[in-house]
Design goal:
single chain, 256 residues, mainly alpha, two-stranded antiparallel sheet
């Protein structure tokens, strides 16, 4: 649980810092209009982070129900992914402040490109979190159910964890990249802007989500005629297509 605890701590630290950002926006060296826009953006960021944090708390509780194994790994990577989302929401605020404070034309344009990519990644993480939360809720509803595969009765949950397992390593790598972007210095939390390699690591994690969800959906389609229970699985082709479209869009966006 140490890894999950660390991720939860990052989320809570980010939430607390964003509360402070809401109080500081009026002190920035910018026009009144820019201050109002930034204040609005900070409020939206705080709201999104609160939603992510609620899901993380649910998954932390879910993780405590299990010994080490696939179910706990599922919970761990969701919490870590939420932590990454929280960090990137903090980066969102940092970049927004830099843009509104101005600078050279090239620097401002570069920051706008980076902000667009960061915002797109937070949207992807929101989508991934929602899909994982829906899967968790379904598994909890059917935690005592079994299905027959090739004459063998197995817990339905084990099938889902099998397809989700490849995401774990990718999220671990992304979390290692994202962690240094949020630091507490002299009591204040600061967010650094990621570089292109950091973004690549984040996108690799999202690639793993798309692949795993797609493989899970294929299993459901191939077996739901003989296993009616699978017809209620909350993973649809439209959801996977939407996530993949979000990912492909980010890949085409300029970062500098």
């Amino acid at each position: 649980m140490a890894e999950t605890g660390e991720a939860i701590e990052m989320i809570e630290q980010g939430q607390e810092a964003l509360e402070g950002e809401g109080e500081k926006t009026g002190e920035e060296d910018m026009t009144e209009e820019d201050r109002e826009e930034l204040d609005k953006e900070v409020k939206e960021v705080k709201s999104n982070v609160e939603k992510l944090a609620e899901v993380a708390k649910k998954f932390k509780g879910y993780a405590t129900e299990f010994a080490e194994g696939p179910a706990k790994e599922f919970a761990k990577f969701v919490v870590k992914n939420v932590a990454i989302g929280t960090i990137f929401y903090g980066v969102n605020v940092t970049l927004s402040k830099l843009i509104k404070k101005g600078g050279s034309g090239g620097e401002t344009e570069s920051n706008k490109n980076k902000l667009a990519v960061v915002k797109a990644i937070t949207t992807i993480i929101q989508t991934e979190t929602t899909m994982c939360n829906n899967i968790k809720d379904w598994i909890e509803q059917h935690k005592h159910d079994t299905i027959n595969l090739d004459g063998v009765e197995i817990p339905v949950a084990s099938v889902f964890f099998k397809y989700m397992d490849p995401i774990s390593d990718a999220v671990d790598q992304a979390f290692k990249v994202a962690k240094p972007l949020q630091k507490k210095i002299e009591g204040n939390v600061e967010w650094s802007v990621p570089n292109a390699e950091d973004i690549s690591a984040l996108l690799n994690a999202s690639e793993a989500f798309v692949t795993s969800f797609d493989n899970l959906f294929k299993f459901v389609v191939e077996n739901n005629s003989k296993i009616p229970l699978l017809k209620s699985v909350p993973v649809k082709q439209a959801d996977i297509d939407d996530l993949n479209d979000q990912l492909e869009t980010v890949k085409k966006m300029p970062f500098y």
